[in-house]
Amino acid sequence: MEHHRREPLEVAILGFLMQGPLHGYDLHRRVEDELGRIWTIGLSNLYGALKRLEKAGQILCALVPQESHPPRKVYTITPAGRDIFLDWVQHPVPAMRKVRIEFLAKLYFHRTLNLEGTAALIAAQEAMCRERIAGLEQSVAQCAPHDFARLVFDFRRRQVQAILDWLAACRQEADKSDVPIRRLRTS
């Protein structure tokens, strides 16, 4: 499968739709309630993402009649959207600054959808962190003893080390807990 950059919000929408059809407001509420600790989104951003996903053929929109209200748009994931989501959720994030949002979202969906491969995802992210640390250590070694860049590279190395330490805790948690937050509905 072609693996290219996807917007985290768009893939998160696909992840929520993996659990069943939703209309826009309920989708927004789910993102806020369940992922609000890692990011917040505006309703206009959500609807913009829904339009892009629909145009790309990753979701479908159906109008559902309501009594005494205008029809409601209900979104469902397509097989193409499902494939894109399942590809995305299995790969580590290359940029360390994106661990805070994107990697946490991937862990959330692994648990919520009871997906296989959580340990492999964590191991791949750990490998990416070790690679980054090695690169930063090389940069530090090339600096003069009192070079300001040395402090900057060391700071970044320590940040990545903290992520690596946290990932070890995540791995232990994943090893202990095989009970998902919520099982995938098969409707």
What does this molecule look like?
With 187 residues, the protein is mainly alpha-helical. It has 2 domains: 1-88, Winged helix-like DNA-binding domain superfamily/Winged helix DNA-binding domain (Arc Repressor Mutant, subunit A, Orthogonal Bundle), CATH 1.10.10.10; 93-187. It is built from 7 helices and 3 strands. The chain has a 3-stranded antiparallel beta sheet. Strand 2 and strand 3 form a beta hairpin. The longest helix has 29 residues, at 148-176. It is elongated, with a radius of gyration of 20 Å. It starts with 7 loop residues before the first helix and ends in an 11-residue tail after the last helix. Residues 179-187 have low confidence and may be disordered.
Looking at how many chains there are and whether they match, the oligomeric state comes to single chain
Report the C-alpha radius of gyration, rounded.
Answer: 20 Å
Order of helices and strands: HEHHEEHHHH
Strand content: 5-15%
The helix tally amounts to 7
In the sheet with the most strands, the strands line up as 1-3-2
What is the global morphology?
A: elongated
Total separate domains:
2
**Helicity, as a percent range:** 55-70%
Largest sheet geometry: 3 strands, antiparallel
DSSP summary, beta strand count: 3
**Could you report the average pLDDT, rounded to the nearest whole number?**
89
Describe the protein's topology.
Elements: H1 8-17, E1 22-23, H2 24-35, H3 43-55, E2 59-66, E3 69-77, H4 79-88, H5 99-112, H6 118-141, H7 148-176
Antiparallel strand pairs: 1-3, 2-3
Helix pairs in contact: 1-4, 1-5, 2-3, 6-7
